[in-house]
Amino acid sequence: MDKNRTEGMKHEVKGSMKEAAGKITGNHAKEAAGHIEKNAGKVQREAGKAVDRARDNDRRH
Questions:
Q1: Which of 48, 47, 20 is nearest to 34 (CA)?
Q2: Which residues, in sequence order, are CB contacts of 53 under 8 Å at separation 6+?
Q3: How many CA atoms lie within 13 A of 19 on its CB side?
Q4: pLDDT(61) > 80
Q5: pLDDT tier at 14 (50, 70, 90 boundaries)?
Q6: Would you state the pLDDT for residue 19?
């Protein structure tokens, strides 16, 4: 498993928590920062998946 997958998931969870905290407290800046971090984590996780797929394809051929 590529490191980007685990790091991306970590950022997604952290961003979701920031976003929720921002919503609860009414802090729009924290909510926006959490949303950005969550989406960046999703992108990083997908990049890790792509690396894993490429590695698997290389092993098969």
A1: 20
A2: none
A3: 13
A4: no
A5: very high
A6: 97
Question: In the structure, what pLDDT confidence band is assigned to residue 53 with cuts at 50, 70 and 90?
Answer: very high
**How many CB atoms are located within 10 Å of the residue 52 CB?**
14
Residue 15, token pair as written in the block:
């961003």
What tokens does 10 get?
A: 């970590």
Q: In the structure encoding, which two tokens stand for residue 16, read together? A: 């979701």
Distance CA 4, CA 23 (A): 28
Apex CA 58: angle with CA 5 and CA 56, to 5°? 40
User: Taking the alpha carbons of 22, 45, 47, 2 in that order, is the dihedral positive or negative?
Assistant: positive
Q: Are 15 and 44 in contact (CB under 8 A)?
A: no
